[in-house]
Design goal:
The chain is mostly helical. It has 28 helices and eight strands. A hairpin with a 2-residue loop joins strand 7 and strand 8. Helix 4 runs parallel beside helix 17 and helix 8 packs antiparallel against helix 10 (205-220).
């Protein structure tokens, strides 16, 4: 083995420093303390992992043998023990603190994590109505699942290369070639899926593998590329650090990711790794090798494990007008995360990695197998019991009753009405009706008024259709970009809806949207698009009704009511935190200002606000007769939807 390769595989404190940068931007991002693009720290971790793991496997290839069992044992010692303890503690905390639906979801994610499929699980449940990401204590395990899947596949690929090529230089060339091909395929897949299926692109290995593989390519590059001139290494180090910090500070939640954007932090990580790999460290390397940075880097894995569940529970239990724990609470949780990370690193990670605990492979595999089976069994029981609702008192159960992703009413299965992009829009109401009287068109709020429309349809012997899609307003020529929306497909969807209304001669059309969020900051474009939509609809002969927003809240109403019912001394009555009428009118100022123009364009306005005000008219109403009117902070429950019946009544009158 050449001397440069020996140096490459020796301990490098700058890599721990790079880990420190990565974990700190992730933690600060998750805690809401700046670094809006701090999620890129995970991508830097991917590059580091690909680099180190591939370097280790290449060393074994040069010896003429890859022992898969040895490799996976090292990975289990590195990953499993601390992860197992964190999952057990998180499940115990969830049992004590969470309501049934959240505890059920936690148990499901625990099962997925135990089976190395957390990324696939969170992709599958990442729909618009899924639990808020910041309240899922095991959400961060998606990245561990990506790495675990990579660790399963990469050694198999290298083993095939080892068995089918010789001599050593031939192996290196073939290794580099196939790693490059796989990287390119993964990168292209990621680019395409980032725009066509962003949730898939975010969570799945095929769209993320290139980030690990560019680290692998760095480790497997030809020997003639090993030595880099000092002046280039110095510049590369500073460029790499700048790239990571720029991405961490400038990227936003709505930045298309991973896609092209992920190149910036990943290539930044490559530049830092490359610039300090040979001939000593440059200035960036020395900066990253200071003792505090190295210490944080060493505990970075445990810090990643522990910081997120603490913050997630803090967010879950927060019932206030900001929907975020107070700054002092977040700082306290971060301090606790550092303490737990140190204890985990000191008493779990290090002793097991150094074989002071679970010294033999048999002991390690036995404990891992038993622990996994126990976690799976306990999680399955929680799932089977649907979060053990027997823990709750009757008042809390009442507030949670009837809250579901899509409302159900009577015998009519609204739960089957998933997002409808057409052209066969679902029909409901009276089964005997021959003519569709009403088209309900809008975003997810349109789906939530269906119980009221259905009730009126039954009374009048009428039928209705619904065209709704999450985060997609009923407008021609305008949409706001969202991971859950139709995005570029919104225009063709709108044209299909209008075509259906025209061809079926539907007498009435109700436009429903979460208007205060629909504009995406482009008030003028949105206003013109909505007015044009009304005019286009009027030309079809339909009567256009525009329903204004119901008051939105700054907390999940059903959860807040249930938590208060369970422990009123700990949780403030959420009715005291409900939005005021003035706040509602300010939040919806644009639509109230636009109302005269909409009327002039031919629309009729429905303002449901009076049905959602307390008797004194000061605050919005969030509960009635022991039931929650909201299933989150702005979607109505079936009980809430029924309060709309008097406002929709004129649509069904001659």
């Amino acid at each position: 083995m050449d001397s440069s390769k020996n140096q490459q595989l020796s301990y490098r404190p700058d890599i721990d420093g790079l880990r420190a940068i990565s974990i700190l931007v992730v933690v600060l991002f998750h805690a809401g303390l700046g670094f809006k693009g701090g999620y890129v720290g995970v991508d830097v971790f991917f590059v580091i992992s690909g680099y180190l793991i591939t370097a280790m496997l290449l060393r074994e290839m040069q010896r003429g043998h890859i022992c898969l069992v040895d490799f996976w044992e090292r990975r289990i010692r590195r990953i499993f023990p601390a992860l197992c303890v964190m999952v057990v503690v998180t499940l115990a905390a969830g049992l004590r603190l969470m309501l049934p639906d959240a505890l059920t979801e936690l148990a499901e994610s625990s099962v997925a994590q135990s089976l190395m499929g957390a990324n696939m699980h969170f992709w599958a449940v990442s729909g618009y109505f899924a639990a808020a990401a910041e309240e899922r204590p095991l959400l961060h395990t998606w990245s561990l699942a990506v790495e675990e899947q990579f660790y399963l596949l990469l050694p198999l690929v290298l083993l095939i290369i080892l068995k089918t090529s010789s001599p050593i230089e031939g192996q290196r060339r073939r290794t580099g070639f196939w790693l490059l091909i796989l990287s390119i395929l993964s990168f292209i897949t990621g680019i395409v899926c980032t725009y066509s299926s962003p949730n898939f692109a975010f969570y799945w290995l095929p769209t993320r593998a290139w980030e690990l593989l560019i680290g692998s390519l760095l480790a497997a590059r030809p020997q003639q590329w090993q030595i880099i001139p000092l002046k280039w290494r110095e510049g590369a180090g500073w460029l790499g650090l700048t790239a990571i910090l720029v991405a961490s500070l400038t990227f936003e939640n709505d930045t298309p990711f991973p896609g092209f954007a992920a190149l910036l932090p990943c290539l930044g990580a490559v530049a830092i790794l490359l610039s300090n790999e040979t001939s000593g460290m440059n200035r960036v390397g020395h900066l990253l090798s200071v003792r505090p940075a190295v210490f944080i880097g060493r505990i970075s894995y445990s810090l990643y494990l522990w910081h997120w569940p603490l913050l997630a529970f803090g967010t879950y239990l927060t019932v206030n007008t900001s929907r975020q724990p107070a700054l002092s609470t977040r700082l306290t949780l971060l301090l606790a995360a550092f303490v737990l990370a140190y204890l985990s690193w000191r008493w779990i990670e290090t002793p097991i990695r150094q074989r002071r605990l679970l010294k033999t492979r048999r002991a390690l595999f036995s404990v891992a197998a038993v622990s996994t089976c126990l976690i799976l069994t306990f999680s399955w029981l929680l799932m089977r019991q649907e979060g053990w609702p027997g823990r709750l008192n009757s008042t809390a159960k009442s507030y949670l009753a009837g809250v579901s992703n899509l409302p159900a009413y009577g015998d009519f299965p609204f739960e089957k009405f998933h997002e409808s992009a057409g052209p066969d829009f679902p029909q409901f109401g009276s089964p005997k009706a021959k003519q569709v009287e009403v088209m309900v068109w809008g975003d997810s709020h349109a789906g939530r008024i269906l119980p009221a429309v259905h009730d009126l349809c039954l009374k009048k012997g009428a039928a209705a259709q619904v065209a709704f899609y999450s985060s997609t307003s009923p407008t021609l020529g305008f949409y706001r970009r969202s991971r859950h929306a139709l995005n570029e497909r919104a225009q063709s969807w709108a044209e299909t809806v209008i075509k259906t209304i025209r061809e079926k001669r539907i007498p009435h059309t109700i436009l429903v949207g979460f208007w205060q969020k629909a504009t995406d900051g482009e008030d003028d474009r949105f206003s013109k698009a909505l007015l044009q939509t009304v005019r286009e609809l009027k030309q079809t002969g339909t009567t256009v009704w525009v329903m204004l927003d119901v008051p939105s809240q700054t907390f999940d109403v059903d959860k807040a009511l249930a938590l208060h019912a369970m422990n009123p001394s700990l949780f403030r009555d959420p009715a005291d935190l409900a939005s005021t009428q003035d706040q509602h009118r300010e939040n919806n100022r644009l639509m109230y200002q636009l109302a005269p123009a909409l009327i002039e364009a031919g629309a009729k306005i429905i303002d449901p606000l009076p049905a959602f005000l307390t008797p004194d008219g000061q605050r919005s109403l969030i509960k009635a007769d022991g039931k929650s009117l909201y299933s989150d902070f702005h979607h109505l429950t079936t009980v809430g939807a029924q309060r709309l019946v008097p406002f929709l009544q004129p649509i069904f009158e001659p």
